[in-house]
């Protein structure tokens, strides 16, 4: 099982977790990801096991719960985006609806990540107009979320690494 290591830009926060699904294949264009972590108009989340998450410098973390967004109405989202309160780096998401998982941003991972065989672009209904989306045979496009989970995508492509 690969253990991924990540950090913020100023290195005040460092973290690691085990991931069976380390492919950075899913680009999210929702306004939350785009505005909190997406310099290219999107963010790339991967997935790891929440019970393996180890954080050094936890006192330097802040949490943001988006509200008033396209998929959460006016209530705060249960997804808490952790970021460094010093340098602002987006680090990972913990979501009470999915307590088994942690969702680090690929941009915060220091461990080399594999190049995915395809890219899945999600929440395109919410992308900024200036963003150009690749539309090649290796790109799958979705206005919302696809029916396939991160784990299912890894299994379908023979990339799930349970041990």
Task: Give a brief outline of the structure.
By secondary structure, this protein is mainly β. It is 9% helix and 29% strand. A hairpin with a 5-residue loop joins β9 and β10 (101-104).
Strand runs, count: 12
Largest sheet: 5 strands, antiparallel
In round numbers, the mean pLDDT is: 92
Helix content: under 10%
At the first level of CATH, the class is Mainly Beta
Unreliable stretches, pLDDT < 50, 5 or more residues? none
Computed Rg: 15 Å
Helix-strand sequence: EEEHEEEEEEEEEH
Shape: globular
User: How would you write the strand order of the largest sheet?
Assistant: 5-10-9-8-7
The CATH topology is given as Metal Binding Protein, Guanine Nucleotide Exchange Factor, Chain A
Kindly report how far apart the N and C termini lie: 5 Å
